[in-house]
Amino acid sequence: MGKRELERRFGFRVVEMPHALKGPEWVRTHPKERAEDLHLAVTDPEIKAVFASIGGADAIRVLPHLDPGVMAANPKIFMGYSDTTMVHLAAYGAGLQTFYGPAVMAGITENGGMFEYAERWFRKVPMTSEPVGKLEPAEGWTEERLEWADPTLENQRRTLRKPDGWVWLQGGAKAQGHLLAELYRRLKECYNDSKVITSMYSLERGTEADARETNDPT
Length: 218
What we know:
By secondary structure, the protein is an alpha/beta fold. It has nine helices and five strands, in the order αααβαβαβαβααβα. The chain has one domain (2-163): Rossmann fold (3-Layer(aba) Sandwich).
């Protein structure tokens, strides 16, 4: 569905990397090959943007095999979210700007098609050179889960809940700086990097399973 959405809805030509369709166990045990896929994507002059397939819990395994210099020498759009935080931080350390946004299998792939809010910002931010401008809260949110493997649910929209708007956790002063949107539990693993600490950031909460895994109540 994700490949079809990118090709039909947005007119992209999708190029799958050699190991993109491997199963989860293979992905977990072959971080070097995954890093090679990323190197191949960023060095291919025909590829203009790199989108993560999905999040997960294994991107940290890729870091020892990832050469940020290759990414810095071949700057192009990189987009993903959640566990992909680790690759975003590696790119940030190499002086690159990346996009914390939908992945192919989660966000771009959506029962009934992308939500209007997600599509609008996807078209505006990585697909144009216009300034992002004022950020607006989403028209709704959902945590409803529909079974991906059930083809009868392909066109069934998930139900959106009424949005709460922006929620300010603390402070009221204005601030200016680089904005890092990252998964909190992954950002904590890099907390001793002063370049990260002195930046502003927008945090993804993660799931309850993430909190149990890390003993983190957030």
